[in-house]
Amino acid sequence: MRAARDGATSCGMFRRTLIALMLLAAPAAAQDAPVVSERATFRVVKFAQGLEIPWGGAFLPDGSMLVTERPGRLRRIGTDGRVSAPLGGVPQVEGGGQGGLLDVAIAPDFARTREIFLCQSAAVEGGALTRLVSARLSPAGDALTGLRRVLDATPAQASGRNHYGCRIAFGRDGHLYLSTGERNERARAQRLDDLAGKVIRLTRDGRVPADNPFVGQQGVRPEIWSYGHRHPQGLAFNPWTGSLWEAEFGPRGGDEINVVRRGANFGWPVVSHGREYWGPRISRDVSAPNIEDPIHVFAPPISPSGIAFYDGAAFPGWQRSLFVAALNTPGLVRLTTDGDRVVGEERLLTGLARMRSVLVGPDGRVYLLVDSPDGVVLRLDPA
């Protein structure tokens, strides 16, 4: 049934996967084998290489790209694919487990302010936490200046170095939205005096907007926009509806897409489609009163990370799609959307590589960050 929905037989999927694996290993000049999908035919091009575990990326107005490396480096990739030396002035990170230098986003008015935002794991007294910082990119584009701490997702946690979340998105309201993981301590996602397992909403300078849902409530953190999240690694605004979409990394199963609502509880771990890694269901319920249901659940699971809506011109057939970078099963997933609904799913490049982030470039092409010690940036070109 899934093969029919994906528009591919198992034989056809195997053939596309084999082609994709050959493309990843091939030199750039040889990467000309077309991949036929439901709504587009494209080629996979190795755009940049020599990166160590790339995690997040953002395009600058001149078409170049900032890319984070999880060990704690930030690099700039030119429009020709050349990778810069590590930029100076990058904050020190806590690099254990899933931590490090994670997402990067540029301010909406970057052309004037040159301000960027970084999400990272940080070591503090009492353990480690998710931290949001801002800085300015130097005129030469080779260093950060004016580094400033915007938010620490307290309290710190002494044990474990996983589930930091750490995606950044800017809304039409000019405010900044940040996802935080529950640090693999499930109860933290439901606690309202705790910033783990949440989507947080702030002004650019780190203040709490007056219309946040929990402002003025005693014992509740006013930064919280939504809660009950496990490990949200994808965050993007729907350009056609203005709503905030989130991709959540479930346990064994339970990977989901949510439309984030103001003040809503998304249920983890009270309800879940997932199972413990050793077998039993985490919750007997997949839905409950006063808990927001996901709009899409991935079956089989994909371990979703970064997401991006496609509104470019290079692939007209992909308009109004949401792309999801997949870690396991590795590849890229395209969701067809209708308003704030998912109406179709197509799995692309299955088995090619662990994809950590997906970006839509100013040229309308799709760029993929491959999560590997020998990381590369792949580009999907029209064929």
Task: Give a nutshell description of this structure.
This protein has helices at residues 2-6, 10-25, 110-113, and strands at residues 35-36, 41-51, 54-59, 65-69, 73-77, 101-106, 115-124, 127-137, 144-152, 165-170, 176-180, 198-202, 224-227, 232-237, 244-248, 256-260, 296-297, 304-310, 321-327, 330-338, 341-348, 355-360, 366-370, 375-382.
Structure description:
The chain is mostly beta strands and 383 residues long. It has a single domain (2-382), classed as TolB, C-terminal domain (Neuraminidase, 6 Propeller), CATH 2.120.10.30. The chain is 7% helix and 40% strand. It contains 3 helices and 24 strands. Strand 3 (54-59) and strand 4 form a beta hairpin. The radius of gyration is 20 Å and the shape is globular. The two termini are 29 Å apart. 43% of the residues are buried. Keywords: Signal. Residues 1-30 form the signal peptide. Pfam families: GSDH (PF07995).
- Second rung of CATH, namely the architecture: 6 Propeller
Total beta-strand segments: 24
Shape call: globular
Largest sheet: 5 strands, antiparallel
Q: And the CATH topology? A: Neuraminidase
